[in-house]
Design a protein that fits this description.
The protein is built from one helix and no strands. The chain is mainly alpha-helical and 62 residues long.
Length: 62
């Protein structure tokens, strides 16, 4: 085999490995985003309920 062919295959292998690393990292980021989304949704619902209760108390007092 020609040295050029070997170099081409080595370069292709390196690029594929780099792509796999990037895809793995993107999957990790996606998992964190989903987790954060669930947590933020829970916080929002709790704040919304607390604000609703506070508004009812304000209306009753005034």
């Amino acid at each position: 085999m020609s040295v050029y062919v070997v170099r081409a295959f080595v370069q292709m292998r390196e690029e594929l490995m780099t792509g796999a690393v990037i895809m793995r990292r993107l999957a990790e980021i996606d998992k964190k985003l989903v987790t954060h989304d669930v947590i933020l949704r829970d916080i929002f619902e709790k704040l919304e309920a607390a604000i609703g209760r506070a508004a009812k108390l304000y209306i009753v007092r005034h």
